Amino acid sequence: MASTTPEAAPRAETPRARFVVQKHWARNLHYDFRLEIGGALVSWAVPKGPSKDPKVKRLAIHVEDHPLDYLLFEGTLPENDYGAGEVIVWDFGEFEAVGPEADDALAALREGVLRFDLYGTKLRGQWVILKTKMGGGKRENWLWQKNQDEFAQPDYDPETEPASALSGKIPSGKR
Ligand code: MN
């Protein structure tokens, strides 16, 4: 993660910050989950996309932070770009860290577990993301899971909600 250690970070007016899930047709289709924390978008690549089924843990590979202005990016990343391919804003909204580390999401990430509520158009309710020791090497594998609440949905498949939450767009020939 980038060295974004703010000096005496000011306490935000509201504990809520923004999140996005981008659907990305790179060489391998995946979803990118990003949380606005510490002035950047802390990011994970999620090969199978989010699941609203509390029984399902989705692999979420921690990737480099992205700048805040990437939050609502939709379009096509060029061929010479790592991750070339089409991107839509699959979901976006606000999140609120909850639990004992709610006041310091960066500390929670360092500890390897972040609990949060999502206020998106598709993703709502309580979620958790936690670091695992799976995989090894340079890859940092996390697991992203829905908690049981009224927004849980057994056997959920993100492909059943294909349209951009921002524009309504479904890229032609893509699903
Ligand atoms: Mn991506």
What can you tell me about this protein's structure?
The protein is mainly β. The protein has one domain (17-152). It contains one helix and nine strands. It has one helix spanning 105-111, and strands spanning 16-25, 29-37, 40-46, 57-66, 75-77, 85-98, 113-120, 124-131, 140-146. Strands 1-2-3-4-9-8-7-6 form an eight-stranded antiparallel barrel. A hairpin with a 2-residue loop joins β2 and β3 (40-46). The chain is globular. The protein starts with 15 loop residues before the first strand and ends in a 29-residue tail after the last strand. The mean pLDDT is 90. The structure holds manganese (II) ion. Manganese (II) ion is lined by residues 24, 26, 30, 32, 45, 83. Residues 24, 26, 30, 32, 45, 83 line the site of manganese (II) ion.
Span of the ends, CA to CA: 32 Å
Q: What pattern of helices and strands is seen along the backbone? A: EEEEEEHEEE
Number of beta-strand segments: 9
Structural class, please? mainly beta
Q: Helix segment count? A: 1
Q: What proportion of the residues form beta strands (DSSP E)? A: 35-45%
Instruction: Describe the main β-sheet briefly.
Output: 8 strands, antiparallel, barrel
The percentage helix is: under 10%
Quick gist of this model?
The protein has 175 residues and is mainly β. The chain has one helix at 105-111, and strands at 16-25, 29-37, 40-46, 57-66, 75-77, 85-98, 113-120, 124-131, 140-146.
